[in-house]
Task: inverse folding
């Protein structure tokens, strides 16, 4: 089991050394599904919960029902992260096996979390920084154009971190399977495409049902 300090240190090393620590963690047979769950769960408590509470505080709406909505959003996001992360890893495991990779599902789940956790943390930290800066700028009567530019810059940095996260994911998968970068990319690209398509289909279905309801209502 990883201690909290060691876990956070591994996240920092992943981001700062281009994932070199993944080679070390790939050799540790005790790091599996349980550690992966903690890697996905800890950032939610460390960063996403403070982000949601900050947004709640800055909104100025202290109604209990709004707080309940915030907590429900947190619970839904947490559940969604675990469902998506397991689905992603299950599909990636199947693809890796077809490409000749041999490793337990739990080991892959941990290696995926090793790349995803620091990416998630850095992205949320960026969002928190943008929210605080926008609040300060509004308080000091900055122009809407300046605030908009800050938001665009924050979004650009967040996207850059996300793309870097895919690189770290490639490194982590390659460290585990040792079958080269092209196959490592294919291992995470296939489940990414599948989940995006499924998500788009579900969204389109919900949107279509909503339109049908509105047409009947009107």
Result:
């Amino acid at each position: 089991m990883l201690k909290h300090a060691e876990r956070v240190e591994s996240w920092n090393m992943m981001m700062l050394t281009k994932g070199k620590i993944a080679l070390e963690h790939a050799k540790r047979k005790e790091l599996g599904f349980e550690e992966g769950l903690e890697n996905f769960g800890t950032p939610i408590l460390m960063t996403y919960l403070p982000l949601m509470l900050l947004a709640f505080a800055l909104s100025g709406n202290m109604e209990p029902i709004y707080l309940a909505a915030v907590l429900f959003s947190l619970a839904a996001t947490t559940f969604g992260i675990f469902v998506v992360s397991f689905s992603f890893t299950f599909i990636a495991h199947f693809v890796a096996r077809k490409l000749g990779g041999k490793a337990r599902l739990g080991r892959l789940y941990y290696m995926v979390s090793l790349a995803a956790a620091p990416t998630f943390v850095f992205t949320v930290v960026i969002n928190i920084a943008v929210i605080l800066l926008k609040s300060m700028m509004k308080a000091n009567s900055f122009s809407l154009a300046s605030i908009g530019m800050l938001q665009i810059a924050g979004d650009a940095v967040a996207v850059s971190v996300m793309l870097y996260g895919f690189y770290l994911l490639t490194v982590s998968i390659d460290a585990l399977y040792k079958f080269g970068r092209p196959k490592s990319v294919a291992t995470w690209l296939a489940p990414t495409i599948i989940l995006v398509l499924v998500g788009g289909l579900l969204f389109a279905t919900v949107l279509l049902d909503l339109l049908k309801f509105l047409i009947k209502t009107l």
